[in-house]
């Protein structure tokens, strides 16, 4: 009986698509896609279609109840809705890193944590000093966060020039940075609290905690009550994306069955499948074997029981978030009108100065300095293969604020379009400079990676 069921056409098509599929699976593709949509947003903002595009983003989407429209503009659906999914994914990454990742052991966690604190405190202080007596002082949270997609994408462009530990260090750093930015959003970018809605959101959150505690793993439960947490948070005054982090914290991180059970179960199912396969007529298609299809379903159920929802849901959301949510956010938010007067005014504008020096100097200095201090004080060690020269480059990568920085800009300045445009221009320029500087430093000033090096 033939073991191959693919047709010749399917084989040729699979071979032709393989390079494309491998390319899509890389972090560099996500970064490049983000760059393309950012460029497209800038082109539209500086074209004859700018006004029409703005009107499209302002279209209200929702439903009508007794003649009253309940809904939000397309822009708000993206910033308050789709971005909540991004924060949900981010929250699951945070939980996984704390439980089993680089941040699960104190010796490795402390330098990353120290670097992240330095990468938040220094930029905020620098921005505040530049804008102490200006109307832009509320934007101090803008240079605090790091855009993980862009930063990791640049690391991947360097290939073997950087050790594997650099990815873990940068990812942990970016996750803590983003968590700090989320706390800033929740505490400092909330104007008025509506306690009834906030209370309802926390009740729905408590239900999710109870479901987790009782062993519930059905994604429908988490989807239904997760949407309730988000909807109530949306009306509470706290930014709705915070709901993504809260719901992520309740996602089960324990498998229902252990690996021993899985091995026994798969052996049993495999024997049953093989027995039917031996008895099946070679001319009878497997499609006609209802029993074999049932066994395959049982295999899927068994593997789901032996893996954690935290792992499965994170994997399931990674590509939709990186290939759809973040590019759409960039398309709707990165566009600014570029002209000589605006670019010339950035040099002397305190908002632009605060963002530039906050991201480039604050991150570039704060991250390696605090990591170095934690090591000198014997509080922790760098992972194997990672040196302080690498951490300097990672500090420059931390200055790529982009997604989170633009997001906080829209919260900090609300309807002040001119301030938003100034901030976006400064974020884009500084992120580009930080990305190039980090690539240059890591390529020419860190030396070749020694795979056997252990610190």
From TrEMBL:
Reactions mediated catalytically: Na(+)(in) + 2 H(+)(out) = Na(+)(out) + 2 H(+)(in)
Entry keyword annotation includes Membrane: yes
Topology of the protein relative to the lipid bilayer: Multi-pass membrane protein
Subcellular location: Cell inner membrane; Cell membrane
Superkingdom of the organism of origin: Bacteria
Annotated TM spans: 33-49, 69-90, 110-130, 142-160, 167-189, 195-213, 220-249, 321-339, 351-371, 391-413, 425-442
Coarse class of the protein's main subcellular location: membrane
Keyword terms: Antiport, Cell membrane, Ion transport, Membrane, Sodium, Sodium transport, Transmembrane, Transmembrane helix, Transport
InterPro entries to which the protein is assigned, alphabetical: Na/H_antiporter_dom_sf (IPR023171), NhaA (IPR004670)
Physiological role: Na(+)/H(+) antiporter that extrudes sodium in exchange for external protons.
Xref: HAMAP family: NhaA
Database matches in PANTHER family: NA(+)_H(+) ANTIPORTER NHAA, SODIUM ION/PROTON ANTIPORTER NHAA-RELATED
Annotated family: Belongs to the NhaA Na(+)/H(+) (TC 2.A.33) antiporter family.
Designated name of the protein: Na(+)/H(+) antiporter NhaA
Organism: Thalassomonas haliotis
Lineage of the species this protein comes from: Bacteria, Pseudomonadati, Pseudomonadota, Gammaproteobacteria, Alteromonadales
């Amino acid at each position: 009986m033939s073991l191959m069921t693919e047709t010749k056409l399917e084989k040729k098509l699979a071979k032709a698509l393989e390079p494309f599929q491998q390319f899509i699976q890389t972090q560099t593709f996500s970064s490049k896609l983000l760059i393309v949509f950012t460029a497209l947003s800038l082109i539209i903002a500086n074209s004859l279609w700018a006004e029409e595009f703005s009107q499209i983003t302002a279209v209200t989407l929702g439903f009508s109840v007794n003649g009253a429209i309940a809904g939000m503009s397309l822009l708000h659906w993206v910033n308050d809705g789709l971005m909540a999914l991004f924060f949900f994914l981010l929250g699951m990454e945070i939980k996984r890193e704390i439980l089993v990742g680089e941040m699960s052991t104190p010796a490795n966690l402390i330098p990353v944590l120290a670097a992240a604190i330095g990468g938040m405190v220094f930029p905020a202080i620098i921005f505040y000093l530049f804008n102490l007596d200006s109307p832009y002082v509320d934007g101090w949270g803008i240079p605090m966060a790091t855009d993980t997609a862009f930063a990791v994408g640049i690391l991947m462009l360097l290939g073997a020039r950087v050790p594997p530990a650099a990815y873990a260090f940068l990812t942990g750093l970016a996750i803590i940075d983003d968590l700090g930015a989320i706390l800033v959003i929740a505490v400092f970018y909330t104007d008025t609290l509506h306690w009834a809605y906030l209370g309802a959101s926390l009740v729905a959150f408590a239900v999710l905690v109870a479901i987790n505690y009782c062993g519930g793993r059905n994604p429908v439960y988490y989807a239904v009550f997760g949407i309730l947490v988000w909807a109530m948070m949306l009306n509470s005054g706290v930014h709705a994306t915070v709901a993504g982090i809260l719901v992520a914290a309740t996602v089960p991180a324990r498998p229902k069955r252990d690996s021993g059970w899985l091995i026994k179960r798969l052996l049993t199912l495999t024997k049953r499948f093989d027995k039917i396969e031996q008895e099946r007529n070679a001319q009878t298609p497997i499609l006609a074997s209802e029993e074999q299809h049932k066994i395959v379903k049982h295999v899927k159920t068994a593997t789901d029981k032996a893996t954690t929802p935290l792992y499965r849901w994170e994997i399931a959301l990674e590509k939709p978030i990186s290939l759809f949510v973040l590019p759409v956010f960039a398309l709707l938010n990165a566009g600014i009108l570029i002209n000589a007067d605006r670019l010339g005014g950035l040099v002397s504008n305190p908002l632009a100065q605060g963002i530039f020096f906050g991201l480039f100097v604050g991150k570039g200095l704060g991250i390696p300095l605090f990591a170095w201090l934690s090591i000198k004080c014997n509080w922790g060690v760098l992972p194997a293969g990672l040196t302080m020269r690498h951490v300097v480059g990672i500090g420059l990568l931390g200055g790529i604020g982009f997604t989170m920085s633009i997001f906080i800009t829209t919260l900090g300045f609300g309807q002040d379009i001119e301030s938003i445009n100034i901030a976006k221009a400064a974020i884009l320029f500084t992120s580009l400079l930080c990305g190039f500087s980090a690539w240059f430093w890591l390529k020419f000033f860190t030396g070749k990676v020694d795979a056997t090096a252990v610190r």
